[in-house]
Each structure stands twice: as C-alpha cells, then as structure tokens.
## 1
Amino acid sequence: MNILSRTMFSVDLDSGPAASSSSSLGRGLSDAVKEATILAATPNVSDFFPAIAAADLQGLRRRMGPLVAEGHKILDELFAQRLLDREACEPPKNDMLDAVLDKEHEEQQEGSEINRSTIKGLFTDMFVAGSDTSSTAIEWAMAALLNNPQVMEKVKGELGRVLGKKTQVEESDIAQLPYIQAVVKEVLRLYPPVPMSFYRAEATVQVQGYTIPEGTTIILNIWAVHRNADVWADSEKFMPERFMDGDIDFSSKECKLIPFGGGRRICLGLPLAYRTVHLVLASLLHEFDWVLPEEAMESGVDMTEKFGIVISMATPLKVIAMKRD
Ligand code: HEM
C-alpha cells in the first residue's frame, strides 16, 4: 500500500515529516479497502433478482456507501493539498496525481469526459485492486518456499551468486534472477491471488462454436485454467523449473498463465506488481533466513485457501525471521 501511495501521491504512509497524519490517512485507506474487498466478494441477491435490487436486502450497498465516501474524502484532501502546493509554485512531484491533474486540465480545454469524479474512481480502483493482491502473492510465495526447502536453497544460491556482498536488492537486479522469476510464475500459477475475473459481452459473439449473447456475464476461472492437467504436466506440483526455458510469460497469447487476466482488460498494475513482488520477495530472502515455528515444522505450512475476490491463506503464514550476519 505504501508503494502505491508513493507512486500515486508521493505520500509516505510509514515515515517522513507527515508521519503521524499520513499514517492515519494510510490506516483510513487500508481499513476502507479491506472492508470494501470483503463486501464486494459477498454474493448479492440483488445481482440475481434486479427487480428487488432497490430493497438492498443484505444491506451491502448501504455498507459500501460510507466506505467509498471515506476513500473519496481522503482523495479530496490530497487533491486540495496538491492544488495549494501548485499555487504556491512548489516543485512538481512528477507522480500520478500530477499526471492526472495535468491531463484533467488539458481535457477540460477540449471538453472531454475526464473529470475529478472519474479520476477518483480510477484511484479508488487502483487502491482496491493493487494492495491485497501483491501482498497476498508474496505471502503465498514465502509459504511455498518454506514448504519446498530444496527450491528455497536454489533461490538463496542464485541470490548469493548474483548479488554477492551487496546488501540491498535493486529493481535492476530482477533481470539477473531467472530462477526467482520462475518461482514467482509458479506461485502465481498455483495460487493466483485473483482466482476469477468477470467480463460482460458487449455484443453477441461466437467462440469455438458457442454463441455468447450480448449482455452475458462471463466468469473466467483463472485458478482452474492454471491447474488444467491437459496443459500442465504434474499440474498440482510446485515446480518452478517448468518456467526456466522462459517461453511463457504473463501476457503471452496462448493464455496458459493468466494471473493478471489478458487482452485489453489485462491488469493495468502488472508492471508495478511484477516489480513489487520480485523486489520484496528477493529482499526478504536475501536479508533474512526464515524458519517455521516449532508447531509448523513437522506438519509444514497449511496451504488451504480462503475464497474471496483475492484468495488468501486460510491460516495466515507465521514464520520467524533471522537476520544474517
Ligand atoms: C500480483 C498482483 C496482482 C494480480 C495477480 C492482479 C490481477 C488482476 C486481474 C486478474 C485483473 C482482471 C483482468 C481481466 O479482467 O482480464 C486485474 C485488473 C486490474 N488490476 Fe490487477 N493485479 C495485481 C496487482 C495490481 C496492482 C499493483 C494494481 C494497481 C497499481 C492493479 C490494478 C488493477 C486494475 C485497476 C484492474 C482493472 C483493469 C480493468 O478492468 O480495466 N492490479 N488485476
């Protein structure tokens, strides 16, 4: 969430001069995002019986309203502060907020649809879509590595060889770490944080002999595509080596590995998520040794999934970090 906040508004949620006010802002956003994700994943009878949608029988719309309002209020404050900074001729931050404010100004001259409300919608979307997804992927990756010590050793070996005595991993190092790249692919194959994506047919189309009428909601089961035994050898096994020839990537046309969806609706956070997941994972593994608490040593990590818009671990991972000398 902090990486997103810095990319979007140059606000550091953990430290810096505005630490106390920004961390309460971070908590506000974080709580709103968590609750909104749970509400959004709750099956809603209104979706199946639109005629009674106005009654909001489960109260989902009633509960979502204040959360969205809370998120938008925080965004309004950020917009207002940035406009004040601009009036005071503060140097530009060159972040996403600067970019969209410039765009809004340009588009206003041309009478376009981009306005404060669509921008707030985009920012809210990015916060909801971008925070739990990357952190969940990292948690699954750590769990899978702890359950597969021989893979963990290979990862550490690669990090040691490539980074040597360098203490901090940098974004530019990722390209030199093909085995970690393969590990991330295998984690996102077996444990795709977003297990399903939703589409709506804008026109009637024919797909492989099936007619899909206009207006149909299509649910794509990403999780099942990734475990299809006709496509993947030993599909249930954690085997990063299957990706070592580098042929399959997240946007290849074959649509075998689609944790970020595909086509024109592919996750717009893919480049950021790719960097974040690799960088955080590599940093955790390069700087610390990790051991399981005694009770998990024998049984291994419980990899049971908890269903939601984001699939999380049913038993959150507990692990002990030991600083390297
Ligand atoms: C490992 C991390 C992530 C995974 C697995 C993931 C996965 C996905 C998936 C499956 C979709 C649906 C794509 C489709 O409909 O075909 C999606 C959409 C989206 N993602 Fe991500 N995502 C991740 C990280 C992020 C991040 C970091 C951001 C923000 C910076 C983000 C922003 C979005 C947005 C805004 C959409 C909606 C795009 C649209 O409907 O046009 N995601 N993501």
## 2
Amino acid sequence: MLDETGKPEFWEAAFSEKQEMWGFDPANSAVLTKDFFIAHGVKNILIPGIGYGRNAQIFRDNDISVTGIEISATAIELARKQYGSDMIIYHGSVTDMPFEDRSYDGIFCYALIHLLDSDERQKLIRNCYNQLSPGSYMIFTTISNC
Ligand SMILES: C[S@@+](CC[C@H](N)C(=O)[O-])C[C@H]1O[C@@H](n2cnc3c(N)ncnc32)[C@H](O)[C@@H]1O
C-alpha cells in the first residue's frame, strides 16, 4: 500500500527491506496464549497485524485455525512462502475491519495496537469484539511506557 504521498506504506517498506526481521520463533506471549486458548477450547482465531506469520504457526500446530489481517503485501508473500497458502490473510488495514462476515473463538493481536492513534485503537477493539463468538476471548499485547 502507498501512503498519502505515494510512497510505500511504512511496514511495506520495512518488510521489503528487512524481510523476516524477527525470525520464525513465536513471541513468548503467543506461546502463553496458545496454552490459554487450548485450555479454553478455542478452535479458530483471528490475528490482526499478522506480519509474516511467525506467531500463527504455533496455533496451527495445535489444531487452531488462523485467519490474519495484514497491511503489507510483502509480509503476506513472506507468510505464504514460509507457511503455505492455506491460511487466509486479508490484505488491508484493521481500520477497515470486518473483512468477512464470521466470528472467532479467539483474537490474538501482538504489537499492533500501540501503532494506532487513539480513535483507531478504540475502533480496533470494537471491531475485534464484534467478531467474537459468545463467550470467547481476545488478547492484545502492547508496548507501554507505564
Ligand atoms: C510490530 S509488527 C508485529 C507483527 C506480528 N504481529 C509479529 O509479531 O510478528 C506490526 C504489524 O502490524 C502490521 N500493521 C501495521 N498497521 C496495520 C494496520 N493498520 N492494519 C493491518 N496491519 C497493520 C504491520 O505491517 C506489521 O506486520
């Protein structure tokens, strides 16, 4: 995607230059969330801001199906190269959610929400909540200076 000046959007430029910049191991939060989701019978999840999918595979390895949303086309290509093409990843901004009419047992959103402004954060949380099945869970991680 291009920004308002016609240049590649920040994350598109970052993934084009640095490729799989955080390696392929899942973040510790993804490991802990996987255990929580298994314990609570979660079977399908949405990962907004999925990047190149490093946090997706640990869920898929445990029979939890994953759908992603990602703004960078290059990150989606990297995910397809590494993990195959059977995982749905919607190309677009989370500000344009929902991308489909379905609900999820769980949402795992790692290191995205702090990148958004205040209005966009509220919208992301509301849009994620609206895609949850009754009695399901959403987990966000963020960077904070508190
Ligand atoms: C700090 S990275 C974390 C990536 C991934 N969650 C991980 O941990 O490997 C933030 C991710 O969110 C994506 N992103 C940023 N703004 C977005 C937006 N408005 N809509 C969808 N994805 C976005 C970026 O392209 C990037 O993949």
